[in-house]
Amino acid sequence: MSEPTPQFEPVIVAFCCHYCAYTAADQAGAQRLSYPANVKIVRVPCSGKVDALHLLRAFEKGADGVYVAGCLEGDCHFNNGNTRAARRVTQVQKLIEEIGIEKERIEMVLMSAGMGDRFAEVATEITEKIRALGPSPIRGGKPAPARAQTKASAKAAK
Amino acid sequence: MITAERKPLEEIVESVASFDRILLVGCNECVTVCAAGGRKEVGLLASALNMTFLKGGKSVQITEHTLERQCDPEYVEELSQLVGGADAILSMACGAGVQELARRYKDKPVLPALNTMFMGASERAGVWSERCAGCGNCVLGITGGICPIARCSKRIMNGPCGGSTNGKCEISDDVDCAWHLIWERLKALGQTDLYEVNMDAKDWRPAGGAGPRTIVREDLAE
Q1: N or C: which end of chain B has fewer CB within 10 A?
Q2: Residues 49-88, chain A: which have Cβ within 8 Å of B?
Q3: Residue A89: which domain range?
């Protein structure tokens, strides 16, 4: 009898706004809602803080899927950070398609701080979607190597 | 500013495919302002190239560096320590920057990552439009501050052609008729008499028609 194929466990990076999705993740915990451990949360002060470079670097360093979670439309604490983030996600979708990575591997989602159930639902849905897509074509299961940078460029990348 | 756009990734990848060590150089001037070749775009392209090569099973060393200006020898000199460790230089500057690198580092292939577009201004965030054609003989003083060379599709000098309709150019409803804009602006300024000034047929020699142009400031030149 052959060994069962181990299920592919994707690495998913979620950039979560402090004012909504990050609090919603807390809420999900308080409500005892479970969501896949595949989702690695990066707390940001606003989804508008997330740059195209952060999104691309996440893929470069081995993420199979990435999403940005921002406030509901009209609810951004900094006025329009969420709409800016959405535009950047669209820009990165085009760029990763040029590289040969499926654009479905990145998306923008919106939620409020009280939507713990939505946070868990989104995390589950995206994990399943990425699991179905398989590992990121750039890594084939291996982490990406480090890349040389001059001091100034390294500072800018931080 | 000089505006530019990144070339399609496929074209860039093809141009650097035979090299293992690439020095990717950005410029902090115009191409930073038009979001085409500044430090951030250098990071994005490096990341995109790295992933493209990884996908193909190839590991390429990409060194990122952004100069204050790529069109000035004193800044270009900064690269002298880095060039030795690279097989090729990929420049994210305008054509002037690419050529300055090629002039200084004669033994390295220098490749452009951008297509240089035009001298333009920022209309609003993320939108740049052509404003100046560098024709060498500015007429903005009599055309209400709107250039008929850069902004009229036919570059005509004395009023609109028959293709001007409702303020738009015949090439597209998205393009304003420059001469319509000029007339409206002169009216607003109370300077419609300037519209009557007959401009001579354009002498294109100062615009580059007499070959590559050079400016020599004798008080500054060494």
Answers
A1: C
A2: 51-53, 56-57, 59-60
A3: 12-157
Tell whether A94 is within 8 A of chain B (Cβ). no
pLDDT digits (tens, 9 = 90+) for B22-66: 999 999 999 999 999 999 999 999 999 999 999 998 889 999 999
Domain-located, residue A138? yes
CATH number reported for the structural domain that contains residue A64 in this entry: 3.40.50
Burial of B166 (0-12, 13-18, 19+ CB in 10 A): exposed
B112-152 confidence digits (pLDDT tens) = 999 999 999 999 999 999 999 999 999 999 999 999 999 99
Question: Chain A residue closest to B64 (CA)?
Answer: A149
Interchain contact, B55 vs A57, CB within 8 Å: no
Residues from chain B contacting residue A149 (CB–CB below 8 Å): 63-64
Choose the final residue of a domain: B118, B144, B171: B118
d(CA A23, CA A66): 19
What is the residue range of B191's domain?
133-209
| Residue B172 domain flag | yes
The answer to whether position B204 is within a domain reads yes
Domain end marker among B92, B118, B144: B118
Under an 8 A CB cutoff, do B39 and A147 touch? no
Do residue B87 and residue B167 come from a single domain? no
Does the CA dihedral B113-B118-B121-B122 come out positive or negative?
negative
Residue among A99, A138, A147 minimizing CB distance to B9: A99
Number of domains in chain A: 1
Question: How far is it, in rounded angstroms, from Cα A137 to Cα B49?
Answer: 14
Say yes or no: B6 and B113 in one domain. Answer: yes
Q: How far apart are CA A31 and CA A9, in angstroms?
A: 25
Q: Taking CB atoms and an 8 Å limit, are B82 and A150 in contact across chains?
A: yes
Q: Helix, strand, or coil here: B88?
A: strand
Does A53 contact B63 at a Cβ distance shorter than 8 Å? no
Give the gap in angstroms from C-alpha B131 to the nearest C-alpha of chain A: 27
Paired with A44 in beta bridges are A17
How many domains does chain B contain in total?
2
